[in-house]
C-alpha cells in the first residue's frame, strides 16, 4: 500500500501492489474492476483518482448493499452533496468524470442513471479524504463515512491519520465532555481569506472558528519586510494578488503543462519549475519576509523539486528556512511540521550530519506519537533509521 519495493504485485496488469498474497486475494473483488481494463488500455489507462474511487464505491454498494463497518453512524448515501450549489464548471467536471467512468469501467460495473451518478460524484468530492504518507506525499483518496461526520475548524482538536486502509482519529487538545470534535479539511498555513476561499470553493461554507473570527495570526502570516521605506499598502495588496496568482499558475503548471514535460524531458521540466519558484521568491522577497506564508509556499515547492532531482543540499537549504515559520504558523501537533522535521532529519543523515539528523527526527517523532499513536508503523520505521545510523 505504501511502497512498491518488496511488495506482491498483480501478475496480469503489473500495476497493483500488495503487502502480501493474502492481501492481494482479499482485494480481488475490487481489483478485477480495473485489472482487465489496465491490461487493455495499457498506457492509455488514466481515469482520475475520483473516478477510481467512485467506481469502487459503486462496486462495494453492489457487493454490500447493507451498511458496512465504516457506516455505523453515517451511511454514504446520506452524505451531503451540495448539488444546488454547484456552478456550471463543477457540473461539467462531474459529467467528464461520468464519461470517464463509463469509458474505463464498462465491463464489470452496473451504473445508476446519470442523475444518481451526478449526486454520487458530488458526494465523493465533498466527503473524500486524501491519504498521505509520513512525509505528506500523496498516496490516494478514500471514503470514511463515520469520520466524515466531523465538522471543520481552523483550530482543530483532533487529527485524522491513516494506518493502511484504516482512518484513526486522535485528540491533540483536551476535549471536555459535550464539546464538539473538530478536524481540519484544508491546509491551515494560509491567512483567513485564503482559507475561506478554499472552504467555499470545495465545501460551500465559511468558517467562523476563533481563528477566523479574530484573524489573530494573519499579520504574522503576511509579514512584510522591514525596510527604511516601508512598501505602500497598495504595493502590499498588489504583491499579495501576485502571490496568489503565481501559486495558482504554478499548481496548474505542475499538474497539467509539466506532466508531458516531465514524461518526455524530466530534467528540463524540473529546471523550469525550479526557475518559476526562484523568480517568484525574488519578486515577492522585495516586499515579504521569508516567514510570509506565500514565500514559504514557493520554498516548499522548490524544496520538492530539489528532493526529486536528489539535490540534497538545495533541499536542505529550503527546509531550514521553512521549519521555524512552519512551527509558528501551524497549530500544535501539525502533521505539516512533523513531516518537515522528518524531511530535514533524513536530509541531515544523508549528508552525514548525524547530530542534527537525530535532533530533527526526534522532533518529528514527538509530534507523530501524538498524531499517529506510539504504535504506528511510521514511528517504528523512523526509530529504526535512528538505530541504523
From TrEMBL:
Which GO MF term does the entry hold, naming one? zinc ion binding
Compartmental location: Cytoplasm, Cytosol; Nucleus
The UniProt keywords, alphabetically, are:
Chromatin regulator, Cytoplasm, Metal-binding, Methyltransferase, Nucleus, S-adenosyl-L-methionine, Transcription, Transcription regulation, Transferase, Zinc, Zinc-finger
Which reaction equations make up its catalytic activity? L-lysyl-[protein] + S-adenosyl-L-methionine = N(6)-methyl-L-lysyl-[protein] + S-adenosyl-L-homocysteine + H(+); L-lysyl(4)-[histone H3] + 3 S-adenosyl-L-methionine = N(6),N(6),N(6)-trimethyl-L-lysyl(4)-[histone H3] + 3 S-adenosyl-L-homocysteine + 3 H(+)
Q: MYND-type domain location, by residue? A: 1-35
Q: Which GO terms describe its cellular component?
A: cytosol; nucleus
Q: Which domain of life is it from?
A: Eukaryota
Recorded hits in InterPro entries, A to Z, give: H3K4_H4K5_MeTrfase, SET_dom, SET_dom_sf, TPR-like_helical_dom_sf, Znf_MYND
EC number(s) given by UniProt: 2.1.1.354
Q: What is its main location?
A: cytoplasm
- Residues of the SET domain: 47-186
Q: Which GO terms describe its biological process?
A: methylation
Task: Give yes or no: UniProt keyword Nucleus.
Answer: yes
Protein role: Protein-lysine N-methyltransferase that methylates both histones and non-histone proteins, including p53/TP53 and RB1. Specifically trimethylates histone H3 'Lys-4' (H3K4me3) in vivo. The activity requires interaction with HSP90alpha. Shows even higher methyltransferase activity on p53/TP53. Monomethylates 'Lys-370' of p53/TP53, leading to decreased DNA-binding activity and subsequent transcriptional regulation activity of p53/TP53. Monomethylates RB1 at 'Lys-860'.
Its protein name is N-lysine methyltransferase SMYD2
Q: What is the protein's species of origin?
A: Apaloderma vittatum
Amino acid at each position: 500500500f505504501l511502497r512498491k519495493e518488496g511488495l506482491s504485485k498483480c501478475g496480469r496488469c503489473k500495476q497493483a501492489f500488495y503487502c502480501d498474497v493474502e492481501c492481494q486475494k482479499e482485494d480481488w473483488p475490487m481489483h478485477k474492476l480495473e485489472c482487465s481494463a489496465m491490461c487493455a488500455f495499457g498506457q492509455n489507462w488514466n481515469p482520475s483518482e475520483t473516478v477510481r474511487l467512485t467506481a469502487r464505491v459503486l462496486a462495494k454498494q453492489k457487493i454490500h448493499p447493507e451498511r458496512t463497518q465504516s457506516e455505523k453512524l453515517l451511511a454514504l448515501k446520506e452524505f451531503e452533496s451540495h448539488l444546488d450549489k454547484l456552478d456550471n464548471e463543477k457540473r461539467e467536471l462531474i459529467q467528464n468524470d461520468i464519461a470517464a467512468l463509463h469509458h474505463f469501467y464498462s465491463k464489470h460495473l452496473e451504473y445508476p442513471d446519470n442523475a444518481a451518478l451526478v449526486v454520487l460524484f458530488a458526494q465523493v468530492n465533498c466527503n473524500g479524504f486524501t491519504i498521505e504518507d509520513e512525509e505528506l506525499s500523496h498516496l490516494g483518496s478514500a471514503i470514511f463515512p463515520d469520520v466524515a461526520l466531523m465538522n471543520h475548524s481552523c483550530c482543530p482538536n483532533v487529527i485524522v491519520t491513516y494506518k493502511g486502509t484504516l482512518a484513526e482519529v486522535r485528540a491533540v487538545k483536551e476535549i471536555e465532555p459535550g464539546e464538539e470534535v473538530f478536524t481540519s479539511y484544508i491546509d491551515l498555513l494560509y491567512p483567513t481569506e485564503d482559507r475561506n476561499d478554499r472552504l467555499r470553493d470545495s465545501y460551500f461554507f465559511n468558517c467562523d472558528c476563533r481563528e477566523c473570527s479574530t484573524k489573530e495570526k494573519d499579520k504574522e502570516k503576511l509579514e512584510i519586510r522591514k525596510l527604511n521605506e516601508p512598501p505602500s499598502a497598495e504595493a502590499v495588496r498588489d504583491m499579495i494578488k501576485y502571490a496568489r496568482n503565481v501559486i495558482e499558475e504554478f499548481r496548474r503548471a505542475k499538474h497539467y503543462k509539466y506532466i508531458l514535460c516531465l514524461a518526455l524531458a524530466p530534467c528540463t521540466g524540473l529546471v523550469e519549475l525550479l526557475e518559476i519558484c526562484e523568480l517568484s521568491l525574488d519578486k515577492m522577497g522585495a516586499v515579504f519576509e521569508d516567514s510570509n506564508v506565500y514565500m514559504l509556499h514557493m520554498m516548499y515547492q522548490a524544496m520538492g523539486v530539489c528532493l526529486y532531482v536528489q539535490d540534497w543540499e538545495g533541499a536542505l537549504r529550503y527546509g531550514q528556512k521553512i521549519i521555524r515559520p512552519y512551527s509558528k504558523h501551524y497549530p500544535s501537533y501539525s502533521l505539516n511540521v512533523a513531516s518537515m522535521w522528518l524531511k530535514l532529519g533524513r536530509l541531515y543523515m544523508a549528508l552525514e550530519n548525524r547530530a542534527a539528523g537525530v535532533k530533527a527526527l526526534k522532533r518529528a517523532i514527538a509530534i507523530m506519537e501524538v498524531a499517529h499513536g506510539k504504535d504506528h508503523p511510521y514511528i517504528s520505521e523512523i526509530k529504526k533509521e535512528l538505530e541504523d545510523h
